[in-house]
Amino acid sequence: MMNKQQCPVCGEQNNCGLEESKLKNCWCFHIGGIPQTLLELIPQENRGKSCVCERCIRKYNK
């Protein structure tokens, strides 16, 4: 079972600023969005439960 601190794509820490600090700011607000096709790679049972990490987004966008 995934926790909110794990990336649903790779399983590593997602460093979610919203979860970690309860602030209304996170690195993901400045990365330019998460491609829909990357979101579709998340297994159905893990969708909407945690944030994709910056590393996976950057890797996917290359």
Automatic annotation (TrEMBL):
It comes from the Bacteria. InterPro entries: Cys_rich_CWC (IPR032720). It holds the Pfam family Cys_rich_CWC. This is Cysteine-rich CWC family protein. It comes from Cytobacillus kochii. The lineage of its organism: Bacteria, Bacillati, Bacillota, Bacilli, Bacillales.
